[in-house]
């Protein structure tokens, strides 16, 4: 785990998939050559095997979106920020290409060496973050700044001379691989073609807009039970537009697959290859989020620095976990104040004899130091019996009720904890059955081992007695002596009452 | 006559039995991983409902951070309650053996639960586990309830003891072992550490560090500029001014104008990358690696690719560009100074 101010994050050009998503065929044939074969050689019929590398095309699993910036639904001043999306899959931006499938691509990875470092040529991403704002759509009647959440994959297919351009124009909807279901629902956005040319990245831009980030995971939150690795690998796709102040913004992660001919040049000049019939770009939306540019700078450190109602330049107020006097009320005084300062709160308590009273409760998270040296353990869950054996001390939760002499109120914390533990154990049937079986089995075997050691010890005594008896010639008496000895022994050993 | 032979020996055995001084339980039964894992989770309060941890919402209002010490008595009571299922309620002499067995095994289970709790998080990372089964002496932690938890997924947290907290310039310190760090809900994060937390550092997630420009003031106007970063150590180099950005056509001309900016909102990313490359190599600081242009290729494309700059234009690689465009790492330190 990193302890340094400079947190480790590695920036990597890209993480290319072994095979791009698509359909593949492998042809296999054998050829034998031998003198023994009439004619000298034999060739088998070639076998053709087809397989496909599937990859998301029109929609992605929402869990792949790790985080976005500016955060979804946030309001702040973002006037020098380029929006981005972090994806939990490190190859996603490169499994498809923005270049035309029929064109010879010059975008395959070529390694080169510079000094001692190996570099790849950059690969353009098929994913792009487009930032749209309300003003963009003002001059385009019939278009709205919103996502069509109720469309189907089939709607992206169309002719190259239709009303729209999309990653799937020119493709035959009826000639798709079986895992593309045209009736499947997905999300899309219609962007007027003039706006598209203004805000879309050029093909050259797409080379530098996606990269991989490898980060240390050691000091991050992890969900219980999840297996995590020391390093997490993410792909990051950045946008190419700075938000404008005072606007509602919609950021969309879209597919620009196959769309090289329709992308603007670096100055936003529309591509000459867009047919005159095209009115809008119809793009699959893989993720989207909203934010508003208004008010104060929205920054990670600013948010944290203003926690607990802290004013700039002041120490952090009210940092301990306890009840603070509410604003406008005076702080409690007397014994109750002491209890509250120690993290207690009064709760309703239904007692064993069906009375209702108020008692103190405090959870496991307390505001003051637990000092094992100066404040010895106040409860013992095991105690020593008269013979020095560790035995359980608590048989029911009421054993842990305490009376606070200064207030005359009960203190429930440990009783509540013990009862909660018992209920949680019983609630989890799998655990409680396993624990009970283990206790039966192992406590039984401990008892057995104890009994065995006593019997062994005593049997030696009896045998000695028998030997003495046999030596004195009282053979028949010896047999009945053994019987009597065993019955005595068995009777007196405490019974194991399972 | 038989009785008179046996009686003294037997009573002697029973007394040994009761003192158990001569009878040692040398081998404790092994507890299945499943039971141990459950109890370890319980020790870290995974199963404890949130209202038991924070019994009143006003103790953790919106946009707040709270520090705490863990009451280890409370945890002992909790774990004993769970372990108590099937415990006899009688304490009479007939159950002497049973009580001893329950007590011995129970002590062992509590100890093993300590060790398992210590290792629970590190084993999730498949890191080497500790053999330390000693009782916890001090567990502390924090609760954070804030929009930050939701907006910056994967924030990084390090806790330090007073004896070993990081200071500038190196910021080296040994962080306390983290027992649990988990997002409990959209906006609530809990952290537990073994040892007394004095300083708590909360970092912006490295994977989510955002991209953007810097600002410079020119003629009383805030304008976008870009500070260059030394590629070898990350330190700040000179700044590329707004005028230089504009001259390199970094902002598209025909897009909507950006506030306080000579040009539009839409960034010509490749031009920007090429400009930063030029500035970095001209600086001759920190950027000595030759970089290929995107069009370095043996065979020119058969079909011309539109929108690409002319052959030979150098730009930063996508990773170096991302590193240059990242805006500063956010980190906030909190200090836990208990009131006297």
Description:
The complex is a heterodimer of chains A (498) and B (340). Chain A has helices at residues 193-199, 203-208, 300-305, 335-341, 413-427, 429-471, 475-492; strands spanning 9-12, 22-28, 31-33, 41-43, 47-53, 65-69, 74-77, 81-82, 84-87, 111-114, 117-120, 127-133, 148-152, 164-165, 185-192, 210-216, 231-238, 248-255, 280-297, 345-350, 356-361, 365-366, 382-384, 390-392, 402-404, 409-411. Chain A has 498 residues and is an alpha+beta fold. In chain A, strands 7, 12, 13, 14, 15, 18 and 19 form a 7-stranded mixed beta sheet that branches. In chain A, helix 6 (429-471) packs antiparallel against helix 7. Chain A is flat and about 115 Å long. The two termini of chain A are 49 Å apart. Chain B contains 9 helices and 11 strands. In chain B, the strands form 3 sheets. Chain B has a 4-stranded antiparallel beta sheet with strand order 1-2-5-4. In chain B, helix 2 packs across helix 5. The longest helix of chain B is centred in the N-terminal third of the chain and has 29 residues, at 96-124. Chain B is elongated and about 90 Å long. Chain B starts with a helix and ends in a 5-residue tail after the last strand. Chains A and B meet through strand 1, strand 6, strand 8, strand 11 and helix 2 of A and helix 1, helix 2, strand 1, helix 4 and helix 5 of B. Strand 22 of chain A pairs antiparallel with strand 1 of chain B, so a sheet runs across the interface.
Assign a percent range to the helix content of chain B. Answer: 25-40%
Overall outline of chain B: elongated
Q: How many individual β-strands of chain B? A: 11
Q: Return the structural class of chain A.
A: alpha+beta
For the sheet with most strands of chain B, the description reads: 4 strands, antiparallel
